[in-house]
Amino acid sequence: MTTILITGGSGHIASAIRPLLGHYRCRLTDLVAPEDALGVDEEFVAADITDLDAMTAACAGANLVVHLGGHRQERPFDEILRVNIGGTRAVLEGARRAGVRRVLLASSGHAVGYATVADARREPVLDPRPDSYYGVGKVALEALGSLYADRFGMTVVSARIAAFLPEPLDRRGLSLWFSPADMVRLVDACAVLEGPGHRIVWGVSDNTRAWVRGDAGAAIGFRPVDDAERHADGIPGIMLPGLEDEAQIAATALGGTSVTADRELGTDWG
């Protein structure tokens, strides 16, 4: 059975996908244990992602590292630097030292938050345009993934995860939703991906109103199947596809409210 190490193993993404990972042996690592009981093929290792020795030990025997750990929203720059950037470096170096060849890094749409929907529809992989210190941390995560792939021949995928939720909550979610089941499909694709190199893909489901392209994901065998449209009836005020103001949508920044003037850098936006 394939063994995967999941950093941030007690976080919201890991908690949502764990019930769907029964075909793996899962080693979870985080500062605190998950609230729910561990399954038969699950184990927990308490560790800090910034601790290189702990990460090296946690990676031992794993076939794939899924790096979900770190702050999940805006923080002061020093915290982003220490945890999100330093932690990613420790995870990648720990994987390298332990002989793990495949790594899936959780990047974010905030790495390109100032890009518009029109930009994302035109290009499969956008150049970095971070909208926050958090976004800067994700750009650095992608750069570290590229470095380790090129220098050490590792297979690294950085997934720009958009709106990961059990179901979409609003118009934005209908376009950027990423379902737990599709996240597992991304893990599955990375677990068997051959060939060294760094790839950037979108962590977004196969949404009817998608704002981003799935070309890069398809190139690594990631083919999402869930569609946010099946939840559209539960969202008030949503117009049918094709009846919306396409010009307004095209000009929308991918980062949403993260690019507005009242969002002070380094503060907890809640």
UniProtKB/TrEMBL annotation:
Gene3D superfamilies: NAD(P)-binding Rossmann-like Domain. Residues 4-162 form the NAD-dependent epimerase/dehydratase domain. Signal peptide: none annotated. PANTHER family: BIFUNCTIONAL POLYMYXIN RESISTANCE PROTEIN ARNA, NAD(P)-BINDING DOMAIN-CONTAINING PROTEIN. This is Nucleoside-diphosphate-sugar epimerase. The lineage of its organism: Bacteria, Bacillati, Actinomycetota, Actinomycetes, Micrococcales.
